[in-house]
Structures are given as C-alpha cells and as structure tokens.
Amino acid sequence: MAQLWGGRFTKETDQLVYNFNASISFDKKFYEQDIRGSIAHVTMLARQEILTEDEKTAIIEGLNGIKSDVEDGTLEITDKYEDIHSFVEANLIDRIGEPGKKLHTGRSRNDQVALDMKLYTRDEILEVDALLKELLRVILDTMKMHTEDYMPGFTHLQKAQPITLAHHMGAYFEMFKRDRSRLIDIHARMNTCPLGSGALAGTTYPLDRNYTAQLLGFDGPTLNSMDGVSDRDYLIEFLSAMSTIMMHLSRFSEEIIIWNSNEYRFVEIDDAYSTGSSIMPQKKNPDIAELVRGKTGRVYGALMSLLTTMKGIPLAYNKDMQEDKEFVFDAIDTTKGCLALFTGMLKTMKYNKANMEASAKNGFTNATDAADYLVKHGVAFRDAHGIVGQLVLYCIDKNIALDDMSLEEYKAISSVFDEDIYEAISMKTCVDTRKTIGAPSKEAMDKVIALHEKYMIVE
Fold first, then answer.
1. Among 26, 203, 205, 243, which residue's beta carbon has the most beta carbons within 10 A?
2. Is the pLDDT of residue 313 over 50?
3. CATH 1.10.40.30 residue spans of the chain
4. CATH of region 110-146+163-204+218-356, choose from 3.20.20.10, 3.40.190.10, 1.10.1740.10, 1.20.200.10
5. φ and ψ of 275, to 5 deg
C-alpha cells in the first residue's frame, strides 16, 4: 500500500486504518472532474513556464487516455488506490513516467478535492435544474388543458371553495419555479475556483489562478486560501434546495395519493407508475407517489448530516470533510430519480373531471358565494353567514347540495333568495367572478399561463 504521501512514514498504514481512511469507493464518482481540473492545472503551469510544453502535452495526453480507458471499461478504478486523485496520478506516472510526477506541482489534495467537488456539484445543479424545467413543462401543459375543469379547493383537508384543476396545478408551478431560482442562486454564489489555495496557505509557485478559473468556467478564484479548501457552504445550500424540492414533491405526492383513493377518484394513475397487491386483486397502488414521499426523509437526512459534520470544524481542512460526499451523492441521485419518475407519472395521469366537479358541489364549496349573494341583496354579512349555515345544515339533513334545493326551500329559510341564486352559486360563476391576478377564473389563469410560457422560453 505505498502512498503518494509516504515519504514521512517509516511503517505502512494498518489495513483497517487504510480502509477507514480511503475514499475511493465513493469519490471515484468524479474521475471526470478530477481529470478536467488536472488538465486545466497543467495548462496553466505550462503557460507560467513551470512546466515545458512537451511535459504539458505528455501529461494531457496521458490524462485523456486514462479518462477514455475508464469510460470504455479498459481501466477499472479499484480500492488499490486511496482516492481518485491517487488513482489518476499513479496511473499517469505508470503511463508517461517522469513528466507524470510533475502533475501535482503547486497543488495539494486539499484544493484538488475542493475543486473536484465544486465541479461535480456545479454539473449536478444544472442536471437537477433541467429535470425541474421538464416537470414545469408538464405542469404548465396540464394547466392549459384544464382552465375550466372545476374541483374543490381545500383548507384543513376540508372542502373550502371551488377552483379549477389549472389553478391547483398553478400552485405547484410557483413552488418548482422558486426551486429553480434557488439553484440558479447557488450556482452563481459557488462559482469561484479553489485551485491554487494549496493545503491552506497558497503556494510559492507563480500560479495564474485567474487563468485556471477561466479555463474551468469559474467567475474567478477564491479570495482566501483557507476558506477555499474548507468551504462546504455550497453543498449545504444545495442539500437545502434539494430538501425543499423534495418537500414540494412530497406535498404533491400526498395529494395524488388522496386523489387516487376510492373515496375521491379524482385521478387514474397510469399502469406503468402503479403496482397491484400480492393478495388483493382489486388494488392499484400509487407506489411511485408513496416512494417519493418516503424518500424525502432521505434527502433531509443528508442535509442534517452535513450540517452536523461541519458545525465543529476549525479552519482549515480537516478529514471530517470527507463525509461531505456519500450523503451528497445519494441525495443528488435520489432527488434526480424522484423528479424524473414523478414527471413521468404526472404526464401520464388522467383526471376524472366529473368526479372533481361533483365533489366541489357536494362539499358546499359555493357556500361563501351564497353568503355574498345575500350581502349584495342588502343582508348584513354576519346575518348572511348565519342564514347560509342554516342552508348547509338543511342540505346535510336531506343529503343534497345547495344546487339541488328548490326555490321554495331557499325562501323558507330567507325570503331574500330568488331565481338568480342558482346562477350566483354555480361552479362557473363562483370561479369566473374571481378575476384578480392569481385567482382561479379562466380570465386570470390565461394571463398567468401566458406569463409562464414566457418564463419557460427565457429560462
């Protein structure tokens, strides 16, 4: 187990200690970022005349060969190596000899791993953002198709007022749109290059850190070498953003689970996103929605784990920070998987519009509009509230909706009611008279949908 850092030591590391210390089992995930960073580093070293052009060429060709061999399966990343940096450097030396030993000039594993993690995270933020955009497109398409399909809106899980399916979906569009804005913020804030920070105090070599940053697509170098190697704020922010994404997916999943129940029957989940029961042949279970809801806790756990790891670490780099990877990798994979599956489920889901509208009517969601009707005919609101309460009690006793009452039944409770009450409490009137921006009327929703379409084009 000869190590790249072994000169100081007279005994080999105990195997258990070596295994405990090693990170190759998980940091092999960013071999591409490690090689990309090394190519930029040696390009800068040659420009600064720290390496010759021939050395640069040999190293870059060697690095590209390693990358190609890993990707086609010719070269396997094994636990023979302590970490991905050791794997790349050892294989490079084996392939090109002496020039390979100069790869690490002016660099520490501390700033190297900080760079790799930033490059990997930056790539993954863009992938999560692309998945969010696809989900937003599916939500927006659903909104456009259902601006006049009525359903109950809820508070306290009780039917409250009538809305449309488009309006309900629009709430989730806003949530996932905010999620995208958080990712954009994180991407911008983290986009500084730590390479050149060294172990913690920079280096005596005349590095051009601005050039390295430019080659790697960063806005510039980090301005403090100690912070450069020990900053993991961007990972905490990314985990927080993913936790919020998962929270939104979980809320949405919970509603789909409810809508899929026998009591509601608002939706039909496609067979590809459902499973049956091993014993009950009538069952069609919303497994994807339930798993998304369950996996939310897994991403929350990653956030809490990293916050706990970082809370007591003094400057600068400490080995504890190796714990930033496994949970982050898992959280990223979990979030991406959930977004892709949820989007597929939503895209193929069918809506039972008749059941939705019937549920809105039978849940007295138009009771507020009945009270407004009385107020418009001169009744004080507090009195109107009491009268409509009597109407609801009457309907519950008769097992009917407000729409089903005869005019005589209405007048028996209040003489103010007349034939126009039916128009006033129709689902269409209840929804379409709410025209302010953000409300559920078709007029308001069409304006919002147009704004969303522009957003999707620009973003």
1. 243
2. yes
3. 363-458
4. 1.20.200.10
5. -135, 165
Fold assignment, 363-458: Ribonucleotide Reductase Protein R1; domain 1 (1.10.40)
All CATH 1.10.275.10 domain ranges of the chain, comma separated, are 6-105
- Do residues 206 and 212 make contact, with C-beta atoms less than 8 angstroms apart? no
| Nearest by Cα to 167 from 439, 413, 356 | 439
Tokens for 165, please give them. 């399916």
66: how many CB neighbours lie within 10 A of its CB? 24
- Give CATH 1.20.200.10 domain extents, the chain: 110-146+163-204+218-356
- Tens of pLDDT, residues 120-157: 999 999 999 999 999 999 999 999 999 999 999 999 99
Give the active site residues. 156, 277
Higher pLDDT, 281 or 448: 448
pLDDT tens by residue, 171-219: 999 999 999 999 999 999 999 999 999 999 999 999 999 999 999 999 9
Nearest to 437 by CA among 423, 450, 424, 426: 450
